[in-house]
Amino acid sequence: MIHSTAIIEPKAELASDVEIGPYSVIGADVHIGSGTKIGSHVVIQGPTTIGRNNQIFPFCSLGEAPQDKKYQGEPTTLEIGDGNTIREYCTLNRGTAQDAGVTRIGNDNWIMAYVHIAHDCRVGNHTIFANYSGLAGHVEVHDYAILGGGTLVHQFCKIGAHVITGGGSLLFKDVPTYVMAAGGQDTKPHGINAEGLKRRGFSAEAIAQIKRAYKTLYKSGLTLEQAKLELKEQLKECAEIGLLLDFLETSTRGIIR
Questions:
Q1: Is 137 part of the annotated catalytic residue set?
Q2: How far apart are CA 196 and CA 123, in angstroms?
């Protein structure tokens, strides 16, 4: 299960059925759960915790020190949940003392080749990161979000649940829940991710109400505060609007327009 050329530090803790490929390096204070498979030439430094049934492909770097000049060697962490697929050449860094000290990846995420997830990011569950997408520090990506290839997200931005971005999108502000965003350097909202919502079991009525909420937010001419008041009224008819409202209430960088 562990290739003879792999280097495992004595203080690493691996479940009995973990697989480690050729020439991989597992550092001290790394904890890897049952069923996880590590490919060849992977480097994992601690403190890092990786859950169950993950598949990590060759040439990934997980748990290295954050790319932050303020970092002074504090014992920050990387936490990866269960059932994630992390493809070739991905880099996931630990957190910093200036934030909560942890970079956290949830469950059942599909992270494609050459993705970078920087220090202190929070990634939810069931997300997809297409090739070459990258998060700067302190970014939040909520459940079921999909980042198209080459999507780059500025530090401290938030990407709402069920969002989808076009390839090459540059995001300097928050993307509200349910929104499709595209446009390269001038990324704009382009309706809601209706197809994704259908695939996840949203009813036709709920999708229609979410489209109405999108029009209230982006097409009505209302200010953001006025739109939020209107959305609170729409919440009485559609519980799914609550997810959008919660996002807007916690947005700190402003939303894409």
A1: yes
A2: 18
Q: Which CATH number is 7-193's, of 2.60.40.10, 2.160.10.10, 2.40.50.140, 3.30.365.10?
A: 2.160.10.10
For residue 119, the tally of other CB atoms under 10 A from its CB is 29
- Residue tagged 């860094």 (tokens): 93
- Residue 120 annotated to the active site: yes
Distance (Å, whole) CA 127 – CA 36:
19
Q: Say if strands 128-129 and 146-147 run parallel, antiparallel, or are unpaired.
A: parallel
Q: Which position among 21, 124, 137, 148 bears the catalytic label?
A: 137
pLDDT digits (tens, 9 = 90+) for 55-87: 999 999 999 999 999 999 999 999 999 999 999
Query: Which is catalytic among the residues 120, 124, 150, 160?
Result: 120
Catalytic residue at 3? no
Give the distance from CA 208 to its chain's centroid. 27
User: pLDDT by residue (tens digit) across 196-216?
Assistant: 999 999 999 999 999 999 999
CATH architecture of the domain with range 196-250: Up-down Bundle (1.20)
8 A C-beta contact, residue 178 and residue 214: yes
What whole-number percentage of the chain has pLDDT above 90?
A: 98
Question: Rounded to whole angstroms, how far apart are CA atoms 54 and 146?
Answer: 19
Marked catalytic residue, from 41, 119, 142, 162? 119
